[in-house]
Amino acid sequence: MRRRPRRTRSKTTVNIVLAVICLIWLIPTVGLFISSFRPATEILKSGWWTVFPHKENVATHTITLPKDTDLRQPIEVDGTMYTDDQLRSGAKAPDGSVFVWENRRARTISVQQSGWTMNTNFTTENYEGVLTGKQYQITDTDGSVKTKKGNGLSRAFLNTVTVSIPATIIPILIATFAAYAFAWLRFPLRKTMFVIVIMLLVVPLQVAMIPVLKDYTALGLNGTFLGVWIAHAGFGLPLATYFMYSYISQLPKDLFESAFMDGASNFTIFTRLILPLAVPSIASISIFQFLWVWNDYLVSLVFIGNQPNVQVLSMKIADMVGTRGNDWHLLTAAAFISMLMPLAVFFGLQKYFVRGLLGGSVKG
Amino acid sequence: MTTSTATPAEKTKTNTSLNALLSILALAFNIGLNGLIFVFLRDSDMNPVIHAILAILWGVGGVYFIYWSLNWVVERYSDAWRRRIQPYLFVGPAFLLLGWLLLIPTVRTLYMSFLDAGSEKFVGFANYAAIFTNRLLLTALRNNLLWVAFGATASIVLGLLIAVLADRSSFERLAKAIIFLPMAISFVAAGVIWKFIYYYQPGDEQVGLLNAIVTAFGGEPQAWTSMMQPWNNLFLIVILVWMQTGFAMVIFSAALKGVPEDMLEAARMDGAGEFRIFFKIIVPFISTTILSVTTTIIVFTLKIFDVVMIMTGGQYDTEVVATQFYRQFFMYRNFGYGSTLAIVLLIAVIPVIVFNLRQMRKQGGF
């Protein structure tokens, strides 16, 4: 009993350490989420953490200098002389406030005082921008206005759905058929075939890519949905087959014997008995495969290439990173859109997801 | 079992030829129908939403129909033939796909790795020699080693640490969900997240979190992913650790639940400290799990591609084997180097293949 206090103290330490780790893990995602709702002009002027209360110089009022002020000469503001450089980076005034150019060309100076503040300027314009590809305007720090076009991500979202659903169901259906045969039918070459499946579990995709792409080009499958489905189906099959096999082979033998007695065919047993029984396993591996396909970049990059009508989210976002590296308001919104589906799956079906992960996690 | 007047021998004969005809028809019908739908969907320019729905219906329904129709034919065969053929109907499609997309390509890639850039002349081991002499390719190899040495190790150690901490904390479920969350998102999205954290802009105001922290402590802001080669690789590796630790943690956490409580209690009674208990009891108990998680993470790390592609595109000496493979293949059109790099990846995972086969034999299934 005397150990109690020590144990509670160690539990507190554990809780604190774990809380700190969790916070570190969470911050990147939170930063993205907050940034995606901030206006384009603010995102580059202040960090996303300034939406929380913090101490900062706040503009109290503006001083307008005469239009003909010579910037090369010392400039008089409120009775004190400053150089242009000082005013650019912010100059301390005698009373503790800070003078800084608000608009250098218009010769206006903003007077700032230190105080608690938070940036609560939020907008959904970023999302509209990336989803619909509408025009939007940015007022730059020097006062000029730029017009840029957003990206039509809604089409890419639709494409990703069109790629992901069949690319999940097709391989799992095929794998379940094969798993049933491996587990309960006896036929020549069964062992060899299963060993091949196990060997293919961890074979890197890269090994297959060049030859498959050559075949695709010859068959006209490049840049088509069918081509991507087949590719994902093939690459996902070993894991799905192995996963389904380990479940189906554990089913009790009597089940099949009584069904055979009743004169059911293999196909009937499969569709009426195995499929319904295997639903939890199928759900687990489906989530795994679905997220894999949804998040995939390499397979789409190679087999879709530059077909704009088929391009998926990951490719579009990767494109944006390349061409609009500093448009963080668009990038963050686009990244968050691509995360919506995985996060929904994650929070909604966490139980199955984790089970799928535990069952078989080696993927080639 | 019809009441026809034909003798059994005659019936079997007509059935055999009819069945053969039906089999060919069923195959041809499937190929023709799906081919037509494919061409129709590819060339039509209908509303994208309708197109998507039709494509999904076809993709899912089409595969089921292939099995159903072919099975319908096989069910008409005599018992002996049905028993012989049906298993292959079940595993056949899986094997055709595996053969076409993985098995045969592996052999073809191996063959191409002995040919020159245009796959025309036989060059022997010249491509393999180049990998160990060409500066770019050597960098890729070195970086892959960095990724495995730092990325895989950190993910496993952190995963185990967090699993143990979570097991003893008062908010286990929440903590695990938070650590696990990055597993669900794509490397591309994670790349955007971290690119923003590492973001550097000239001037005073740093909106990238890392540079803001550095400047708050009086340091100089840096362009993290391009400076201080080769240590900039570590900043990319952090992303992998952020994403993979959750995976390791979930599996370790499940294994930890299997450590018998009375064993731990007994050790505590004997006065063993928590560290001693961890290394002397827990680690040996879950060693198989540690081994399998390690192999999985190493295999995954070896093939790392997306992160590097998004963050630096392989510039600033951050190239890895998979990105170099892509570059050789798609930009330089050097199929020889490309194939050789792919084979290098394959060779790197062969120990894991052997390990998996051994495990399978041990479990006694085959």
Automatic annotation (TrEMBL), chain A:
Record key words, sorted: Cell membrane, Membrane, Transmembrane, Transmembrane helix, Transport
PROSITE patterns registered for this protein in UniProt: ABC_TM1
UniProt similarity note: Belongs to the binding-protein-dependent transport system permease family.
Source lineage: Bacteria, Bacillati, Bacillota, Bacilli, Bacillales
SUPFAM superfamilies, sorted: MetI-like (SSF161098)
Compartments reported by the entry: Cell membrane
Annotated ABC transmembrane type-1 domain residues: 157-349
Keyword Cell membrane applies: yes
Residue ranges of the TM segments: 12-34, 163-185, 192-213, 225-248, 269-292, 328-349
GO cellular component terms given for this protein: plasma membrane
Source organism per UniProt: Cohnella terricola
Name recorded for this polypeptide: Carbohydrate ABC transporter permease
GO term, biological process aspect, one: transmembrane transport
Database matches in InterPro entries: MetI-like, MetI-like_sf
Recorded coiled-coil stretches: none
Membrane topology: Multi-pass membrane protein
Predominant localisation class: membrane
Automatic annotation (TrEMBL), chain B:
Annotated protein name in UniProt: Sugar ABC transporter permease
Family: Belongs to the binding-protein-dependent transport system permease family.
Keyword entries, A-Z: Cell membrane, Membrane, Transmembrane, Transmembrane helix, Transport
A GO cellular-component term linked to this record: plasma membrane
A Pfam entry, by short name: BPD_transp_1
Domain of life per record: Bacteria
One of the GO biological process terms: transmembrane transport
Keyword Transport listed: yes
Range of residues in the leader sequence: none
Keyword Transmembrane helix: yes
InterPro entries from the UniProt entry: ABC_transporter_permease, MetI-like, MetI-like_sf
Domain ABC transmembrane type-1, chain residue ranges per copy: 141-358
Membrane topology: Multi-pass membrane protein
Subcellular location as annotated: Cell membrane
